[in-house]
Amino acid sequence: MNCPNIMLPHPDQRNMTEDYMHLQHESKLLSAPAEIRRAIYANIIYCQIHAFLSQGRILLSECLQPNLGDDYHDGHERETMAEGSSDARWARRLRSSWGAHWECEEVAFAQNTDLHKHSHHCIYNLLFLCKKMFLDVCDFVVKTTAIIVTDLDTLNVLLLKYNELTSGPNRLWNLWDYTRPSIQKLNVALRLPLAFYRALEEDEALVLAAVHHTSAVSTMRTTWVRLWPAVCQLQQLRSLHIWLDHDDPSSWSVIKERFTLHHITAALAAYMQARSRGENLPHMDITFNLPKLHPGIARPDTHFVQESPPLPFTIERRIRQRYHCEESASGNLSVKYKADFPLMHELPGVLEEPGVTLREFEEFEKMLWDEGTDVYQFMVDMFGFVSCF
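The chain above was modelled as a monomer; its predicted structure follows.
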């Protein structure tokens, strides 16, 4: 996506009040009632937009609003059927750090020429018209648009290092100066290295003394710890959606959820306590979207199992990506298949079986795991079915 390389009008470092801007009475749009203007903006500005860091600047691009998780999207849908396409392109899509938003990443960086038309976000055209329009659009964005962030660096800059974005004479006219304090909807989608989650599981003192973690993982961990209290300090935030995964073919359940998500849940608990004390904080709807737990691995003391006590947030479970990118020593990319729970999802015709739902198959498989049955061997013995588990 190409952001126009244009500087906003110099505000002489004064407050942005009507004393320092043209009221634009001759503008039919800006003179229209607020509800008319909002209806017009709604047809121009998407209800969900990605914010991402590129060369020190926050850029915006359209979100195609992908399916964030169900029982059918397992990575196979990322395969391209175009003539002459190789598995390498499919593999690159499978390892996208944007996770379920892999196609949005292609839009943002215009990797697909058919999608290039989506990459020029209309909000820029509105922001550069005049000061009054700038404020009007900012107000609309924070009240109606979900901001989506797919990496820790961008979230860090938006919440903790935003001064680095706004240096120079045009600071007062930076989009994020006006939207950040008033964001009402924030969606965070992170597909992070397995080693990073492992570091989060460890005791903090051990992490500080450890030498086996790379500097990148250590930096990410420090950022992670600081970010979530900052998220909860967004005083207008009313909706927080967090989609998480790791980048390894192994089961999601090898991660100890309760330990890795501790810093998030602690920040949310502090927010809830402050609200219960009567502090003027809005109600926040909090949702985690996580892969389904493997009953042969997950435990109540390390995972948010179904039998866990009530939580102050909602957890949605999805089927995990089953097709993964594999890179050889020579740098060649290929596609690897590795199933996570439920395995019986792979039985031929299971989704077409009359009168039997996928949930019932899941419950049956979970019962087998709980009983200590080797489900892999059971599937071979009962159905003669062998897959690349």
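The longest strand covers residues 185-192.
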